[in-house]
Hints:
Elements: E1 2-8, E2 13-19, E3 25-31, E4 47-48, H1 50-65, E5 75-82, E6 88-90, E7 100-101, H2 109-119, H3 124-128, H4 136-146, H5 148-151, E8 156-158, H6 160-169, E9 173-175, H7 176-181, E10 185-186, E11 191-192, H8 194-200, E12 209-211, E13 214-219, H9 222-228, E14 235-241, H10 242-249, E15 258-262, E16 266-272, E17 284-287, E18 298-304, H11 308-318, H12 324-332, E19 342-346, E20 360-364, H13 373-397, E21 405-408, H14 416-426, E22 430-433, H15 437-448, H16 455-458, E23 464-468, H17 473-492
Amino acid sequence: MLLLGIDLGTSSIKVSVVDGNTGKRITSAHYPESEAAILSDRTGWAEQDPQSWWSYTKEAIKKVNSTGLFNPKDIQAIGIAYQMHGLIIVDKDQNVLRNAIIWCDSRAVDIGNEAFEALAPTGFLKSHLNSPGNFTASKLAWVKRNEPEVYVKIDKFMLPGDYLSMCLTGEINSNISSLSEGVFWDFKKNCLSEELLTYYGIDKSLVPDIYPVFSNYGSIKPEVASELGLSANTIVAYKAGDQPNNALSLNVFEAGEVAATAGTSGVIYAVADELVYDKESRVNTFAHINHQNDKPNLGVLLCINGTGIQNSWIKRMTAQGQNYSRINEAASDIPVGSEGVRVLPFGNGAERMLCNRTVGAHMENLDFVRHREAHLWRAAQEGIAFSFRYGLDILRENGIDPKVIKAGQANLFLSPVFQQSFAGVTNVPVQLFDNDGSVGAALGAGLGSSTFADRKEAFSGLQQHATIEPSNTTLYDDLYGQWKESLENKLKNK
């Protein structure tokens, strides 16, 4: 019995095939080979064509099939992880009506702020655990306000994972975890938010059918099964946003456990068993994958937009033709602190932990005689680590003080410079595991299809690669203080 995991990222689609008997990866592939484009017609806008996601998904599945390492017809269940907070809208024939408005798009910030100002006196934050911000509900309200000719054609809205599931099965559905990340869920009443839907004038009929996270979301359409060599009996059995899914991939389910990731964006994701919310909504709380109305399990999420995208921008500008391994090696030769070079990595839209302000990225203290490319490479990774510390301090203000953080050995966590900077400036040990989002999605499918008897069986193959212990903490504290002062000076001018 085999399981297929799909990870719909911003840069590419990654898929993995996992052996349902052992929980171990057989093979993986991603598509496209180069980073997928983000479309930005105006400052603060970020869109992608959802139909390209479907095309990329099919190509990635064909790539793993072509390895000959397994029989595709033995795949019995599919799990989907996806970039969070996006908006896809379709008409009654399931035709996409416009590009997806993705997670780092800032156009709905003012709409969300207006909504929060109006709804805050009713206790909205206590019941929804987030301000409407620029989350999916506010993005849909933006379409209603600015593209009424499109809005009237909408039959259903979806999150990105719901869209891929629709392409596979022809069914449109979602779950509490996904809807909560769009701020469509009222945790006090344990139901869809009538309050926000009414305020925005969004008809409840546009909401997808709501299933449990681990469910049978539908069988693969015969024509899709034929094209991809799959069995028509294969089901989609799990869907979750990339951060709840990253937590799942690391077996982070229970209160007090914490996961992190540093892909295009960076996240610390802590599990809590009570309704936690930040008074300024700088960190956000959503339903975790195992949340139940009678047994709350929430994911408290700190998000930084400009992490991997900052690192890739530096590479593109200064290191064309070089791979990340060479860049990381050269950065390791530069002393901690990058000999004064300082980077604020906030060039990817409004940052929630900065109260939805757009600060922009900044490089400071450059000396044209002393500094070279490797100083920029190290400073970029240190600046990203310092932004994690800034966000972690906000989590600590809200009673979350992790003693260890789990992460997959992927993306920026492949870099020794970033590993050491992250552990040193946060003063928290980091456990690195050989896992990723696509494998996590496959394991989720195994739980959703009852391939695994329980979590212990599902994660029996999870292997810890290393533990990064904090070092140079006093030096990192001093450097962080200087970095924070630079950031706060920028914030005063916004």
